[in-house]
Hints:
- Helices cover about 80% and strands about 0% of the residues.
- The relative contact order is 0.14.
- With about 240 residues, the protein is mainly alpha-helical.
- It has one domain.
- The chain contains 11 helices and no strands.
- The chain has helices at about 10-30, 30-50, 55, 60-70, 80-95, 100-130, 135-145, 150-170, 175-190, 190-210, 210-230.
- It starts with 8 loop residues before the first helix and ends in a 14-residue tail after the last helix.
Amino acid sequence: MAHPGNEHPAQRLRHLLERNRALQQVExxxxxxxxxLRELQAWQCQRLEHSHADLAAEPRYAAGIxxxxxxxxxxxxxxxxxxxxxxxxxxxxxxxxxxVLATAADAVNLQVLTRQLDGNxxxxxxxxxxxxxxxxxxxxxxxxxxxxxxxxRKQICLIAKLAERLESYxxxxxxxxxxxxxxxxxxxxxxGDLQSFLERGFRAFRAMRGSSHFVRTVxxxxxxxxxxxxxxxxxxxxSPSGPx
Length: 244
């Protein structure tokens, strides 16, 4: 069997989609767990929006923040998008460069890892700590209970890697033209969710006119927050709901 690192991007993407679907099925099999997971994810989205509100307030970065939160992290059902990708894989392999397929795989890989980490946070918060309302100290303590700091560092690195790949594509006139030409046909053959996802990512990074400051800022902040949590700081970042 080939080592995962040596897989063709399309094969890697297929395996990650299968893993993502399996995780979703586990989540949906337990309504209580799913409700708690959605509560956690919603809180984390608020935290991300609050932590990076200054970037979101800048027109050139607003779409980038929205893309990462809404399209890669928000508590929503991505099954239609993932089904689109699986359905489109034979066409994607023929039409798209391997580096684009690798980027799609990176996006799903980020989602799979995030899903696993969030899933482990749920029992830490609601069973071990018995929280009724998530706040920053409880969230930080749940991180320490889970003790998955290396995986969290990998998560941040995946965000940076994905951003760098997307940035490289916005300068490709061929990819831009291909994406525009695919808009109508993609919707006609039932691949609208996938097409919209790609278009939002492309527009977000095109609007930045250079994403290095955006990526450096997000990554440095998230790493600093993680280091504070690991060091035992109870309030490693400002509360998204204001002073606690």
